[in-house]
Automatic annotation (TrEMBL):
GO terms for cellular component: RNA polymerase III complex. It comes from Nicator chloris. InterPro entries: RNA_pol_III_Rpc5, RPC5_C. Residues 146-155 have a biased composition (Basic and acidic residues). The gene is Polr3e. The lineage of its organism: Eukaryota, Metazoa, Chordata, Craniata, Vertebrata. It holds the Pfam family RPC5_C. Residues 146-169 are annotated as: Disordered. One of its GO terms (biological process) is tRNA transcription by RNA polymerase III. Residues 444-689 form the DNA-directed RNA polymerase III subunit RPC5 C-terminal domain. This is RPC5 polymerase.
Length: 691
């Protein structure tokens, strides 16, 4: 307190922040020169800058008349650089070193603490600096002198004879083909000094105009160092508490953090992980672990994490395989990357890994040779796929590394059903890409299952039968009470000793429900894509409850109409694939999940104005029956209706037709002379989805 009283405040100065030259003001530090030769004696000839690198190059004239200038030394330097002849390429045209070049380097990487201040009329105006550059002499002219010296020595050695020159014309050339560059090699090349120097040299110079100290333009620019408005609204940065203001002036040093040992780039502590958003946490965990049960994922995310939010995020980066989550292929192999083993692009790697994941949805065992034969990838890539999610067993193959998670499947049937729809879409793509055969689509039965059958004792069978009888008796009793109540409400006089209890109703039609479920080997309690707990909403023997029929028909009709308006011709197989993808995009509990059979789908196609085109495919075709059923929208209401109908009539007679026959038939039926481009347009519009 005594020191503060002895040091009273003499004057209070208002501080203002000028913004006019923000991110434009640089501080140049020139080298020290003799006192007898100040910078007033030096004239700037030219200046240029590379903005991205913050690199400046100044060319200044040297006062050769100054008594401190050594003329003989200047002439010697000019002679060494340019030689005896002078032309436009000469560095010193006056045969005297009359100029010098200065190149800049950054004096400080962080200039946020520095500002230029101007004091005027009791006010202090601050402008933040964008950079501090130190100018040092450039000696590139010495390199030019050395090059001239080597050229003169080469010329004095004497030229070769004409015979030697003729022999030098014929040279052997060795051709080498570079190997595909791996990702690690590319990163090393990008971080090399040679590459950085090349990048810096590629940036173009921007030439600047220099204005002297007393120039009118300099006077005008100096006015921008003053704050244009003194209102508080424009200087909100200075309205801070004393502690905040001191923190802005002297932020905490980061040198201590730099002294700490840095962890590898691919290592992230759990404390750092939990500072990230939930989606990023899940993506990093799945990318590193690759296969994880949902319970383990929740435990890693910490207590209090919302399970619903985790389910929503994990479906974006992983797929469900045997009740466990496996990271998606495009997360491990991003776009524009390649295999470190074979150089195969990421798109091909993703397809091969998806095939391995799909095989594990069908069976717990996968054979490496079968995967390599289908995907046509190198053994190292296939081994990487298998090691991500399985363990090698001697003389058996590769077994999925985690057991089947029945708890998750029972608790989340809607998630399981959605994942099954996604796998059906992936399976359809894999069938087209790899031309999968039936032996690849059907899972193999394990020898261990046949060798070790399930044994049930007689006592266990008796107990199971008793429990089943009790369950059926309870259901029959409920039905009896319900029918008695109905009889009393209707005042019927008929009395029956044994009521007519309807236990099972036989199906009226023999239509087969469309398969929208995954393989039975998953054993996840789903029937036709629905969990058994939803039996009250399921169709009974192919028949929907009365209240759901209209809603299901409306939804199905809307899907069929919108699909055929986009693609006028579709096979039944393609239509079913699109319908399964549509189901996967619907929320759980939607009316369309009640079960749609093939016959219902085909009847709805015919009800929406489409016709079945009986294309005479050859008998030896390898297409499936669903691929042979072709449906087309007869009238779409556009200008191509007549052309489309003519084309459909043509293909109903022959499955393969020449282009000139189509062109002649269209010209006769439509009365128009169509050229080749117009015929191609009609074919593209009408059959783009089929042919």
């Amino acid at each position: 307190m005594a020191n503060e009283e002895d040091d009273p405040i003499i004057q209070e100065i208002d501080v203002f922040l000028a913004r006019s030259l923000l991110e434009k003001l640089y501080l140049f530090q020139y080298p020290i020169r003799p006192a007898s030769m100040t910078y007033d004696d030096v004239t700037h000839l030219s200046a240029k800058i590379k903005p991205k690198q913050q690199k400046v190059e100044l060319e200044m004239a040297i006062d050769t008349l100054n008594p401190n200038y050594c003329r003989s030394k200047g002439e010697q330097i000019a002679l060494n650089v340019d030689g005896t002849c002078t032309d436009e390429t000469s560095t010193y045209s006056s045969k005297l070193m009359d100029k010098q070049t200065f190149c800049s380097s950054q004096a400080a990487s962080n200039v946020s603490r520095y500002a230029a201040a101007v004091y005027k009329k009791g006010e202090l105006h601050l402008t933040p600096l964008h950079g501090i550059l130190q100018l040092r002499p450039s000696f590139t002219y010495l390199d030019k002198a050395d090059a001239k010296h080597r050229e003169r020595e080469a010329a004095n050695e004497g030229g070769d004879s004409s015979q030697d020159e003729a022999e030098d014309d014929v040279k052997q050339i060795t051709v080498r083909f570079s190997r595909p560059e791996t990702e690690q090699a590319r990163q090393r090349r990008v971080q090399s000094y040679e590459f950085l120097q090349k990048r810096q040299a590629e940036e173009h110079w921007v030439h600047l105009h220099y204005y002297g100290l007393k120039d009118s333009r300099s006077e005008h620019e100096r006015q921008y160092l003053f704050s244009q408005g003194h209102g508080l609204a424009e200087n909100t940065e200075l309205i801070k508490s004393p502690s905040e203001y001191l923190m802005m002036l002297m932020p905490p040093s980061v040198e201590e953090e730099n002294d700490k040992p840095m962890a590898p780039s691919n290592v992230l502590s759990m404390a750092q992980l939990r500072t990230l958003p939930l989606a990023d946490q899940i993506k990093i965990l799945m990318k590193n672990v690759k296969v994880m049960p949902f319970a383990n994922l929740l435990s890693l995310l910490g207590p209090g994490t919302d399970a619903t939010a985790v389910l929503r995020c994990v479906q974006q980066v992983a797929l469900l395989v045997q009740g466990n989550w496996v990271v998606k292929s495009d997360v491990l192999y991003p776009k524009d990357t390649s295999s470190p083993h074979s150089g195969v692009p990421a798109e091909v790697l993703c397809r091969g890994r998806d095939f391995v994941m799909w095989k594990f949805t069908q069976d717990r065992w996968v054979v490496r040779k079968e995967v390599a034969a289908v995907t046509k990838l190198c053994p190292e890539d296939v081994k990487d796929f298998l090691e991500h999610m399985s363990v090698a067993r001697i003389n058996k193959g590769w077994e999925f590394m985690l057991p089947y998670d029945e708890d998750f499947v029972k608790k989340h049937p809607d998630i399981v059903q959605r994942q099954q729809m996604l796998w059906m879409g992936i399976q359809a793509k894999l069938e087209k890409v790899y031309n999968l055969l039936k032996e690849h689509l059907t899972p193999k039965k394990q020898e261990t299952q046949s060798a070790h059958p399930l044994l049930v004792s007689g006592e266990q069978r008796i107990n199971m039968a008793k429990a089943k009888v009790k369950q059926n008796y309870g259901q029959l009793e409920k039905e009896l009470q319900k029918q008695k109540a109905e009889l009393k409400s209707n005042d019927t006089s008929a009395k029956t000793d044994v009521p007519n209890i309807r236990i099972k109703e036989e199906p009226v039609s023999v239509e087969e429900p469309m398969d929208t479920s995954a393989h039975e080997g998953l054993n996840n309690g789903l029937v036709n894509g629905l969990h058994t707990a939803q039996a009250s909403m399921d169709p009974v023997n192919g028949h929907l409850p009365g209240g759901c029929i209209d809603r299901v028909a409306q939804e199905l009709k809307a899907f069929v109409s919108s699909t055929f308006k986009k693609q006028f011709v579709l096979t039944l197989s393609e239509l079913k694939r699109l319908f399964n993808l549509h189901l996967a995009s619907l929320p759980p509990g939607h009316t369309l999940f009640s079960g749609i059979s093939d016959k219902m789908l085909q009847d709805m196609v015919l009800d929406t104005g489409c016709k079945q085109i009986l294309v005479p495919f050859p008998p030896q075709t390898a297409a499936s029956p669903d691929e042979l059923k072709v449906y087309a929208l007869w009238e779409a209401g556009d200008t191509y209706d007549q052309h489309r109908q003519v084309l459909l009539e043509i293909f109903s007679k022959n499955y393969r037709v020449r282009r000139n026959v189509i062109q002649n038939q269209l010209s006769q039926e439509c009365g128009e002379d169509l050229n080749k481009q117009e015929v191609d347009r009609v074919l593209k519009v009408s059959f783009c989805s089929l042919w």
